[in-house]
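4.2 Preliminary Data

To establish feasibility before requesting continued support, the project team ran the inverse folding procedure on a target of 452 residues. The structure was first converted into the token representation described in Section 3, and no sequence information of any kind was made available to the design step. The complete token record follows.
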């Protein structure tokens, strides 16, 4: 089935469910949800008005409820979790791996989370508490502590027999972690290697020791880059002493990459990546008000700059017509450079060592584009208002503003990163404010000097 067909079907299902809700046909709801997996149900729930979600969620297949809470946004998950009986929640917890269970506990109400932890075996509870002790959005939170390990001094036959006897082998076990008797990480061996190898060989004979490892304190973006650059399926997480702590698998990294993309996309307009399409009106308005207030302040700042040249604008109306062009071109150029820089920072490709080379390259690009498009705009302004001086002025202002835009597009995210602010969330506002102010100031300032 194609992606387009899947989207169409899910859209049709939302329509069916909304009709069933209107008619209180709960059997139809259960029937619609029965063949779907957790991710599809979560997608559908996000397309249903907030107040109706519990009625749909409660009729989803019982074995998907825990994963649905992980797939849907945190705020919605907290609301839906309140509709789960403690007994059902405990049963769901048994089916989740340690990293997913830690994530679920994070979104549960405190009372439900405490009940869930108290109902676990001591060993499992200690594993979950160890995972929760790490900072959010770190490798420690992503890792699964209940990985299948083997020792290097056992035979391939023994390892295969051990796998057959285990009742709770994670379904994504493609790589086994080779761990010494003292708990130190030694290497990995794939299940495929075990199947292909002579059963009399030792694990040490078939394992790979030249493998990349992660620290529990690595960020999610660092984890994603490691998996991408080395085409990993799974990676070990070890502490500073080389002790094995757990593993991270590609399935969780795909989720991280998606979340990072959503964060960058939504952050450009001041929205949280957990923003719910059908969240309650007033909490949503409150969250967006902060961003609108910030934009309003920058707008007033730009308006104040324009007000400084009120007399110039009164005498030459053409300036008011052409003024937005200078600011707009600078804003677009700055946003392009900003986006590339933020991406480079996220991937670890931009640092203090290469920032100067990047700056020179972006300034060169802005100079080339600025010269080309300033000539086009200058000629149009000259012919439109029959004033060659006006054409020269807007051309110079455009080139200058696009150079400043390139400068801001690199230095602003570097500065924000340095002071531990998220460039993806606040960079756009700062850069566009700079290009607006510089664009207005340069254009109107030159006009005041040469036209009055």
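Position-by-position output of the design step:
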């Amino acid at each position: 089935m194609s992606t387009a067909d899947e989207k169409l079907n899910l859209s049709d299902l939302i329509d069916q469910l909304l009709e069933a809700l209107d008619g209180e046909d709960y059997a139809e709801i259960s029937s619609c949800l029965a063949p779907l997996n957790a991710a599809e149900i979560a997608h559908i729930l996000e397309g249903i008005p907030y107040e109706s979600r519990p009625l749909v969620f409660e009729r989803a297949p019982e074995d998907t409820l825990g994963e649905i809470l992980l797939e849907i946004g945190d705020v919605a998950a907290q609301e839906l979790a309140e509709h789960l009986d403690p007994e059902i929640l405990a049963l769901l917890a048994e089916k989740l791996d340690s990293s997913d269970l830690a994530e679920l506990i994070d979104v549960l109400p405190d009372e439900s989370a405490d009940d869930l932890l108290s109902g676990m075996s001591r060993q499992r509870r200690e594993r979950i508490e160890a995972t929760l002790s790490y900072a959010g959005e770190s490798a420690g939170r992503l890792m699964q502590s209940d990985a299948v390990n083997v020792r290097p001094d056992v035979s391939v036959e023994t390892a295969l027999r051990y796998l057959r006897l285990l009742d709770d082998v994670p379904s994504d076990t493609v790589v086994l972690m080779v761990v010494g008797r003292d708990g130190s990480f030694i290497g990995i061996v794939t299940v495929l290697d075990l199947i292909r190898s002579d059963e009399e060989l030792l694990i040490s004979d078939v394992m790979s020791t030249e493998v990349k490892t992660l620290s529990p304190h690595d960020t999610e973006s660092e984890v994603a880059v490691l998996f991408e650059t080395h085409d990993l399926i799974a990676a070990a997480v070890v502490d500073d002493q080389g002790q094995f702590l757990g593993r991270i698998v590609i399935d969780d990294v795909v989720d991280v990459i998606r979340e990072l993309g959503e964060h960058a996309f939504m952050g450009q307009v001041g929205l949280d990546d957990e923003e719910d399409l059908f969240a309650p009106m007033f909490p949503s308005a409150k969250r967006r008000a902060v961003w609108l207030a910030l934009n309003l302040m920058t707008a007033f700042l730009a308006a104040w700059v324009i007000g400084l040249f009120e007399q110039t604008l009164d005498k030459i109306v053409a300036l008011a017509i052409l003024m937005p062009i200078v600011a707009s071109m600078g804003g677009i150029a700055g946003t392009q450079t900003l986006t590339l820089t933020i991406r480079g920072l996220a991937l670890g490709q931009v640092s203090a060592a290469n920032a100067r080379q990047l700056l020179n390259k972006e300034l060169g690009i802005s100079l080339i584009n600025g010269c080309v498009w300033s000539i086009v705009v200058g000629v149009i302004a000259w012919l439109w208002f029959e004033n060659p001086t006006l054409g020269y002025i807007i051309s110079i202002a455009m080139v200058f503003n696009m150079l400043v835009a390139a400068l801001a597009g690199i230095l602003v995210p570097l500065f924000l990163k340095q002071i531990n602010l998220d460039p993806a969330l606040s960079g756009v506002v700062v850069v566009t404010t700079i290009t607006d102010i510089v664009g207005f100031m340069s254009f109107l300032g030159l006009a005041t000097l040469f036209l009055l």
